[in-house]
Specification:
Alpha-Beta Plaits
Length: about 130
Amino acid sequence: MKADTIEIVGFHAHIYFDTDRRDAAARVREGLAQFEVQLGRWHDKPIGPHPQGMYQVAFSPPQFGKVVPWLMLHREGLNILVHPETGDDVADHTLHSLWLGEKLELNVEVLRPRTTSVRFYIIAQCGEWMFLG
C-alpha cells in the first residue's frame, strides 16, 4: 500500500486499565459518551494484541479533533492507544499509532495476516471485529 493512497476510515482508542483502576476507566467511559463514538465491551484480561484489560472506543475521522483532545485532558492517568483504521492492522497499531501515557508493548504477532480460519477464530474468541481492521 503506497503512503499516498492510504485512507483512514476510522479511529480506535484502547483505554487500558487493571483491576485497581477500573473505576477510573469507567469514569473516562462515561465522559466519552458525550461524543459520537461506539463503546466496545469491557475486557478485564489481556486480549488479542493488548497486554492488559481494556475497552475499545471507535470513532470517525471528523470526531478525532474532539475525542483525542478530551482524552488528553481526562484520561485519569490511564494509558491509551489511539490508532487509525487503514486496513493494515500491524502498521495501524505500531507505526501509525499515538500513545497517551506510557507506551505498552503490544503482541503484534496476533495482528499479522493468517489463514481465514485462524482470523475467524480470533474474532470468535474476542467477540469483536476490531482484529480484522
